[in-house]
Amino acid sequence: MSNRTLFHVLAYADVNRGIAFLEAVGFTRAAIYTDGDGADAVVVHAQYNWRDTGGVMFGQQRPRTTDTGDTADTADTADPAGTPDTAGFVDGVGRAQCYCVVETDADVDRVHAAAIAAGGRSVQAPNNPDYGGRECTVRDAEGNQWSFGTYQGE
């Protein structure tokens, strides 16, 4: 039984590149489900865990389909605020933001370097904010923003 109670959900246009980034910064694979076998298989659901407390769930960006199996036009499925319906991971690439707690200041520096080596871009180099701890922020190759820090909240 898992004690994980919070997952961020995101989508990748290139799932393999996303997986390489997640593994480089310390996430561990829990599950990957595809719609078939072979080179054309699409990752429809994957879960990668962050330590013992949380994780991310994601899949390959793909067109959303209706209950009848037809591809839906996202312009017809917008909510009243005008946000497209992102079920099926359409339009969801590069929009996630996540904060991951690490144990030590050295871990912040190590994860920052690993993220850059895995194709990420530094948004904020490791630093010591006034509210305590040490933190950094990077964007993965698809634009998702990842912050890593020792600050565990109040």
TrEMBL record:
<feature type="region of interest" description="Disordered">
    <location>
        <begin position="55"/>
        <end position="86"/>
    </location>
</feature>
<dbReference type="InterPro" id="IPR004360">
    <property type="entry name" value="Glyas_Fos-R_dOase_dom"/>
</dbReference>
<dbReference type="Pfam" id="PF00903">
    <property type="entry name" value="Glyoxalase"/>
</dbReference>
<feature type="domain" description="Glyoxalase/fosfomycin resistance/dioxygenase">
    <location>
        <begin position="10"/>
        <end position="148"/>
    </location>
</feature>
<dbReference type="InterPro" id="IPR029068">
    <property type="entry name" value="Glyas_Bleomycin-R_OHBP_Dase"/>
</dbReference>
<protein>
    <submittedName>
        <fullName>Glyoxalase</fullName>
    </submittedName>
</protein>
<feature type="compositionally biased region" description="Low complexity">
    <location>
        <begin position="66"/>
        <end position="86"/>
    </location>
</feature>
